[in-house]
Each structure stands twice: as structure tokens, then as C-alpha cells.
């Protein structure tokens, strides 16, 4: 089953990290990505630009309404994702815990609906 691993972190805290701290986190992401690719679990994954580049779209009474920024004010923002093909939720959780963002933010694990 495919699972989305949605990585939430505090963008303000991320921007205050030193270059060395940021590099160490990126090394962790590279290692994780290499592992899941080698185990043929990796299906997709990308980092996202900061929420300042986001646009939220809603349709109300037949009109498209756009708002700059994310849809909700939260402490943590969606910063990236992976899509992995895991045998079950336990395996998905095992890999989500290895994502570096889980150490300083959170990783939401959600099964993907196959139509």
C-alpha cells in the first residue's frame, strides 16, 4: 500500500539554524532517500517552498477565491513529502520515524486511496 509521509516543521526555527545544522539535516534526508530508493519503497518525494509562496484556493458560491499563504495558521508547516510503498502501516511508521523532520517536527502518515 502506498503511504504519503507529510513532513511538518517550524519554518521560523528552520531559518534560525546554522549552516552546519542545516547541512546535517540535509545529509540525513539524503541518507533516508537513498535507503528507501535502494529498498524499492520510494515512489515520489519533494521539498516544498516556504508557505510564503503558497496560494490557497477556495470556491464559494461559484466564485474562485484565492488567499496568499497556507490555509491555516499553525506552528508547523508542510515542508515536503515522500510517497512510499510499504507492506502495512507498521512499516510506514517505521520509515516515517527515520525521516529527519520527525526529530524536530512531525510526520503525518496517510494511506493513499487507489481508485
Would you mind describing this structure in some detail?
It is a single chain. This protein has one domain: Alpha-Beta Plaits (2-Layer Sandwich), CATH 3.30.70. The chain is of the alpha+beta class and 115 residues long. 14% of the residues are buried. The strands form two sheets. It has a four-stranded antiparallel sheet with strand order 2-5-1-6. The chain has a two-stranded antiparallel ribbon with strand order 3-4. The protein contains three helices and six strands, in the order βααββββαβ.
How would you describe this structure in keywords?
two-stranded antiparallel sheet; 115 residues; Alpha-Beta Plaits; flat; alpha+beta; 36% strand; four-stranded antiparallel β-sheet
Strand fraction:
35-45%
The tally of domains stands at 1
Q: Any low-confidence stretches, pLDDT <50, length ≥5? A: none
Fraction of helical residues: 25-40%
Mean pLDDT: 92
Q: Number of DSSP helices?
A: 3
Sequence of secondary-structure elements: EHHEEEEHE
Taking Cα atoms only, what radius of gyration do you get, to the nearest Å? 16 Å
CATH homologous superfamily?
A: Dimeric alpha+beta barrel
Query: Could you describe the largest sheet, including whether it forms a barrel?
Result: 4 strands, antiparallel
Using DSSP, what is the number of strands?
A: 6
